[in-house]
Design goal:
Elements lengths: L2 E5 H5 L6 H12 L1 H9 L3 H7 L3 H13 L4 H10 L1 H7 L3 H8 L3 E9 H10 L5 E9 L5 E6 L3 H11 L7 E3 L6 H5 L4 E3 L1 H5 L26 H27 L5 H5 L5 E5 L14 E4 L6 H9 L5 E3 L4 H6 L4 E3 L4 H14 L2 E3 L10 E2 L5 H5 L3 E9 L15 H6 L5 E6 L15 H16 L2 E2 L4 H9 L11 H9 L8
Organism: Acacia crassicarpa
InterPro entries: HAD_RAM2/GPAT1-8 (IPR056462), Plipid/glycerol_acylTrfase (IPR002123)
Membrane topology: Multi-pass membrane protein
């Protein structure tokens, strides 16, 4: 069996410095204070490296990022937050070489628990060799590690390959790599890997579809400093923007919001307001943030009620439009939506939850059963610093974080109302109607349609993705989708 042992930092990942990943752990597990403290210590870490004490600098990062944090919280960040940033940093040239071998082992200088989920599930590695965090009997990290020395790494690689030396070793001739490269039959360094004409068959990494966390960009030292400096101004700006939305009439919001950095791009022709006494239009939107219905209402310059699934009470209080909280009991929700449509227009996001990546989740078919006046609306957004919705943490902060971004931008595209022959009134199956709407919205946005549901998202983010009540496991479905995930080839 041909085998490969590869360094993670600086080889499979383009960046050899793990500092930004520890900043993510600090921010997502503990908040702003630990994040700021680790950034404050950043000048010390490269200084220790220049003095030949790189290992001491690494241990300092680990200690500040993890000391006193529960093991479950560290695992949650490693599962839900880090894979997105690690995937963005993946060196595809190195990946092609690495994935073409049958047995794949990764060596990392980060604690194993931080990267194991990503390396095994997305890079398809068989083993991960890294230091182990010391966890006390109460389940909290002490910030200390064991098993990360050069000798320990070399010894663990030797144990894995006691019968036959690894076919290929990939890594730089510094740090932990110097210990395991000498055990390999062939050695390959990153500059050579990038220029390698590789004709072996290789796999594709599993795409990251679901991820969580507040930060949009990987917090390198410069980015982290910019975020910290922006926070006070961002909080003030968010307060002003929210007050503008609550106090001003809706027709004025699109004009005033531009003065405070917001931008909304409208495409297509929105339908006119229905006459009093007539049944309303059901706007079926892709779901990117909890702000989707609010932005839609501001574009239409009238307050349109929105169907909600699980937003916080604070978000409902701050909402400038009426909200209709579903019970998740199908017949009760159907009657509620029908009653609301009899009074006027309504907004629904049939995915049931947000998805940040360019994918659409499976649409619930309930909306298709209730009306034939369906207008699909493609919603998309761009933010610079903070994501507007999270599955972890307090959801009441979602609208505040959205408005804390320097220049939040929304793009709203109105599609034509579904023709009568494409609705259930013409005898169409509700699931076929829902799938059709999903496809045309995905085509408009340039997204991929998936069969994943809200439950799949929370199973992945909660670490229960192996428990899927269907004939096809979530892992198999991700593999099937990965076969058509073309952007990873470029």
């Amino acid at each position: 069996m041909e085998s490969v042992v590869s360094e993670l930092e600086g080889t499979l990942l383009k960046d050899s410095d793990p500092f930004s990943y520890f900043m993510l752990v600090a921010f997502e597990s503990s908040g702003l204070i630990r994040f700021a403290l680790l950034l404050l210590l950043w000048p010390v870490i490269p200084l220790l490296g220049l003095l030949g004490l790189e290992d001491a600098g690494l241990k300092l990062m680990i200690f500040v990022a993890t000391a006193g944090v529960s093991k479950s919280e560290i695992e949650s960040v490693a599962r839900a937050v880090l894979p997105k940033f690690l995937m963005d940093d993946l060196d595809m040239a190195a990946w092609k070489v690495f994935s073409s071998y049958e047995k794949r082992v990764v060596v990392t200088k980060m604690p194993r628990v931080i990267v194991e989920r990503f390396v095994k599930e997305h890079l398809r590695a068989d083993e991960v060799i890294g230091s182990e965090l010391w966890i006390n009997r109460f389940g909290f990290a002490t910030g200390l590690v064991r098993g990360g020395s050069l000798h320990a790494v070399c010894e663990r690689v030797a144990v894995l390959f006691r019968d036959e030396a690894p076919t290929l070793g990939m890594g730089r001739r510094t740090g932990s790599c110097a210990s395991f490269l000498q055990l390999c039959q062939t050695q390959m360094q990153p500059p050579i890997i990038a220029n390698q004409n590789h004709d072996r068959e290789f796999l594709r990494p599993h795409p990251v579809i679901f991820h969580d966390g507040r930060l949009v960009k990987r917090p390198t030292p410069s980015t982290a400093l910019l975020i910290l400096l922006w926070m006070p101004l961002g909080i003030l700006l968010a307060t002003i923007r929210i007050m503008v939305g609550l106090l001003l009439p809706f027709w004025a919001v699109p004009y005033i919001s531009g003065l405070f950095g917001g931008k909304v791009i409208v495409k297509g022709k929105p339908p006119p307001a229905v006459a009093p006494g007539n049944s309303g239009v059901l706007f079926v939107c892709s779901h990117r943030t909890l702000m989707d219905p609010v932005v839609l209402s501001s574009v239409l310059q009238r307050k349109i009620p929105a169907v909600t699934y699980s937003i916080s009470r604070l978000s409902e209080i701050l909402s400038p439009i009426p909200t209709l909280r579903l019970t998740r009991t199908r017949h009760v929700d159907a009657e509620m939506i029908k009653h609301e449509l009899s009074k006027g227009d309504l907004v629904v996001c049939p995915e049931g939850t947000t998805c940040r990546e360019p994918f659409l989740l499976r649409f619930s078919a309930l909306f298709a059963e209730l009306t034939d006046r369906i207008v699909p609306v493609a919603m998309n957004y761009r933010v610079g610093f903070f994501h507007a919705t999270t599955a972890r943490g307090w959801k009441g902060l979602d609208p505040i974080f959205f408005f804390m971004n320097p220049r939040p931008m929304y793009e709203v595209t109105f599609l034509n109302q579904l023709p009568m022959e494409a609705t259930c009134s013409a005898g169409k199956n509700p699931h076929d109607v829902a799938n059709y709407v999903q496809r045309i919205l995905a085509a408009t946005l340039g997204f991929e349609c998936t069969n994943f549901t809200r439950k799949d998202k929370y199973r992945v983010l909660a670490g229960n993705d192996g428990i899927v009540a269907s004939t096809t496991s979530l892992a198999d479905r991700i593999m099937k989708l990965a076969k058509t995930f073309k952007p990873f080839l470029h």
